[in-house]
Amino acid sequence: MNWVNHIFDEEWSIRSAGGLTGEALFAKRENKQLFLKRNTTPFLAVLSAQEIVPKLIWTKRLHNGDVITAQKWVEGRKLSKEEMYNKDVLQTIKKIHHSPELLHMLMRLGKTESSTTNDFAELKAHCFYNGLDGEAVVYRSLMQLKALLPATKQQEQAVCHCDLNHNNFMYDEVGKLYLVDWDQASIADPAKDYGNFLYYYIAENDWKDWLYAYGVEINDALLRRIYWYILYEVLSYVVWHKERREERFLQARMKELQHLEIKIKEKLF
Known about the structure:
This protein has nine helices and ten strands.
């Protein structure tokens, strides 16, 4: 927190705003309240202009090159899993994917389109490196990813948040919805976002209606894309927990992977 002393005097009260990195802080002085973060995405300004995140108040660059951003502090609350069905959540996701301004800004920042071929090759290498290729369910899942890979090719690319977790959606005190934590944003097939969103939050019987409201029609080709991204995500978590030796979480994800592999086999093969 040494960087705080370069910006604020002793009249400001500073405390942690939570998070794993400790880079997010809450600053308060009389009636002024700010949310501070160090070296967040430069993407923040255009997100603020489109009212997707709380208003950006200022940006400061320190002598060491670090960039500090200050946003309006919002007295809000995170959404529950059940609230992910809300229409404004769907509309926010749709707005992001159809925004030329967001796409243009990410491209200006040097982001390039994601490659599912490269993603698959990298994931496969991690599986082999961590000795997971000897697990039958991992091997079968990799074969499914390979078989489904052609369905992901030549798709229209858009800005994807890549972490549409209910903890990243929040309502302010008057019910306005915000989507925060944009550090993983990429340019990719929108199915990367809404595929995992559907998997974690929307009952499968409701996928057709949700996708219709979003603006796409469900069919076999779309399901192949959706399940590719779902399977890729779950297998990535298997690798994540394996690398960190988190045995309990690893076994839970392996069980989930087994159920998913069976479901994909029944639906698509």
